What we know:
The chain is 54% helix and 12% strand. With 307 residues, the chain is of the alpha/beta class. The protein folds into two domains: 13-177, 3-Layer(aba) Sandwich (Rossmann fold), CATH 3.40.50.720; 185-305, N-(1-d-carboxylethyl)-l-norvaline Dehydrogenase, domain 2. The protein has an eight-stranded mixed β-sheet with strand order 3-2-1-4-5-6-7-8, with helices on both faces. The longest helix has 28 residues, at 182-209. The radius of gyration is 24 Å and the shape is elongated. The structure holds NADP nicotinamide-adenine-dinucleotide phosphate (NAP). NADP nicotinamide-adenine-dinucleotide phosphate binds at residues 17-23, 42-45, 48, 79-82, 84, 88, 107-110, 131-132, 135-136.
Amino acid sequence: xxxxxxxxxxxxxxxxxxxxxxxxxxxxxxxxxxxxxxxxxxxxxxxxxxxxxxxxxxxxxxxxxxxxxxxxxxxxxxxxxxxxxxxxxxxxxxxxxxxxxxxxxxxxxxxxxxxxxxxxxxxxxxxxxxxxxxxxxxxxxxxxxxxxxxxxxxxxxxxxxxxxxxxxxxxxxxxxxxxxxxxxxxxxxxxxxxxxxxxxxxxxxxxxxxxxxxxxxxxxxxxxxxxxxxxxxxxxxxxxxxxxxxxxxxxxxxxxxxxxxxxxxxxxxxxxxxxxxxxxxxxxxxxxxxxxxxxxxxxxxxxxxxx
Length: 307
Ligand SMILES: NC(=O)c1ccc[n+]([C@@H]2O[C@H](COP(=O)([O-])OP(=O)(O)OC[C@H]3O[C@@H](n4cnc5c(N)ncnc54)[C@H](OP(=O)(O)O)[C@@H]3O)[C@@H](O)[C@H]2O)c1
């Protein structure tokens, strides 16, 4: 059994700037776990703060950033959209009545680094970014699905240490990442999460063009996608790849391309780009002849250049 995580007593108060999908979910999880108390909540629109307070079950609504000085807190999350994090940090730094010395301030962008918070670091805060690799599309669902999410941390050591304890307390697995690796790390998570959804949408569009209704399309795609994903995660992408590319079946691929060009030409590039990636896996399987691999590579390349 792992040793219990030492938590400061009493739990620190956390102020929240930007309590949308991620901000309210983390606040509720941490508060329910008893590892923080909720201080103030600020969003530009008061209705967003009110709905967050209802969801979290606690919090004082601040009408503007200056009012946050009425709620001193040693812990702050800036969970605004990425583009607003730095300007929020600048505006907060300009609030003369907030004492930042000894505080921990973090944001949750996957791409941006803790450097976005430098204006507050200059005033004595330990700063960090803490990115949960989780889709917070539905805060209610995320409350029960968050456990075991990997949270990548980067920034000042005291902030990383405290956030490590907090995320562990709500079931997260924490890992430290180098700031320079964040763009590639984030691109990878976007591909795995958002592009999977885009792939689902593309398959549904082709099935609709084939005259297959939504219910049947879901029945076809749900087990197919789930099995492929499970296989890929279990045995690795090279071993999991099946289908026409793994078999070197160029006639089938040509027929697909002709049909997609007729019905949904906007999906041709997606088909050939992902086909080229699948071809790399087929090459690594080692069972196809060089001639077959070259013919498929040329087919995908030709389609790309003619559209
Ligand atoms: N959603 C996810 O699945 C997810 C996953 C991992 C990481 N993240 C990261 O989490 C952060 C928040 O994303 P989100 O999806 O929760 O965004 P969101 O749902 O759009 O919420 C953003 C919140 O910030 C407030 N806001 C916007 N501009 C502001 C400003 N200038 N000052 C103060 N508040 C402001 C908005 O309210 P007002 O418009 O009323 O100000 C809103 O309540 C981002 O850094 C994102 O990259 C999100």
